[in-house]
Amino acid sequence: MKITVMTADEKILTLDVDRNESVENLKALLEVETRVPLQQQQLLYNGREMRNAEKFGALGVTDGDLVMMVSNASSSGARASPNEAGFNPDGSAMNPSALQQQLRNDSNVMAQLFQSDPELAQAILGNDLDRLQDILRSRNRARGELRRQQEEEMALLYADPFDVEAQKKIEAAIRQKGIDENWAAAVEYNPEAFARVVMLYVDMEVNGVPLKAFVDSGAQSTIISKSCAERCGLSRLLDTRYRGIAQGVGQSEIIGRIHVAPIKIGNNFYPCTFTVLDSPNMEFLFGLDMLRKHQCIIDLKENVLRVGGGEVSVPFLAEKDIPSNLFNEERLTKDASSSGAQATSVSKENINSPTVRPSATGSTGRNAAQGPDFEAKVAKLVELGFGREQVIQALKFFDGNEEQAAGFLFGG
Predict the structure, then answer these.
(1) Domains of the chain
(2) Cβ(108)–Cβ(184) under 8 Å?
(3) 216 classed as catalytic
(4) Closest listed residue to residue 272, CA positions, set 256, 282, 283, 259
(5) 216, 278, 289, 399: the active-site residue
(6) Most buried among 204, 280, 321, 345, using CB within 10 Å?
(7) 411/407 Cα distance (integer angstroms)
(8) What is the mean pLDDT of the chain?
(9) What is the mean pLDDT of residues 88-116?
(10) Model confidence pTM above 0.90
């Protein structure tokens, strides 16, 4: 006859057994299927524990019946060797200082903690061991509550396998398990997905002035800020008849258009058209209009921008070569590069263009560096083995948020 076994982790097994077979033999088979030792298995049928020596026929098990398997591995293992586990029964660490140091030394674990439990990760980086112990205890209580809820759901299933509420809870648990497995697979096979992606910058010259150009194929137009246009000596060419409002995630004022000016990419010069925005947060964005005009190729395999169908190749800048003040620009411009962004003209024509969201506070990275505890944050992160300049840039990028900066450094 066939019986269905549901394990504690919601795994469903269908097994062939004989009515005269003992429960112990079924446990041996389950040990092979689930890797749970026979001694740690507890089988329940209609809410009653099945003893090893009992036979299925004597227990009244029939074809198609459901048997629940509960593993007591965690409790028995903790009682057998508490010193190996390193944790007290209440979840606190037996040696919090050693645990803290061990976790700090494992960058992969720290990177995962910053993604899944940033509060615990911050406590590990801090110097307050009492706070670390309190968080470990609270996590242990939460796990205990979760186990209690799972046991209640199993009991509900036994009471009435066809109860609608019971089936909803089981469905939700199975769905969440799939999500957790998907996350674990991503961490193992695609860990770079959890790291910050550095946007694409290249060195260019606009009217003889060197600039770091943000290459953005998601922006409809090439954009230059008013201040950058003045620095490049292009203000005299500004056509204010093309004023308007650039709308996307936010909005910014278009103060005009520069119809043509020379840009230098590599050793070659190319004509370029600019939409001029009154936005202090963004200098120069090389958009899709000029990428198309000059037949540019974004070659991520070779990490270069090819211009003119490949006649000129310039490398994308490494993160260390991008000025820290551009990190804030990059974050704002990502919001601006919405493919549906449009500019509403107030004069002769409509100008399709993405926008840069105005900032209410200006350069927050610079303000963060002026805080009284900024040096203390730098010193703490430098102690973890990161370079001082790298730490300062990360803190500025995350507006002085030590937790986010540490997560980025570990993830990078």
Answers:
(1) 2-74 (3.10.20.90), 87-194 (no CATH), 201-362 (2.40.70.10), 369-411 (1.10.8)
(2) no
(3) yes
(4) 259
(5) 216
(6) 204
(7) 6
(8) 76
(9) 78
(10) no
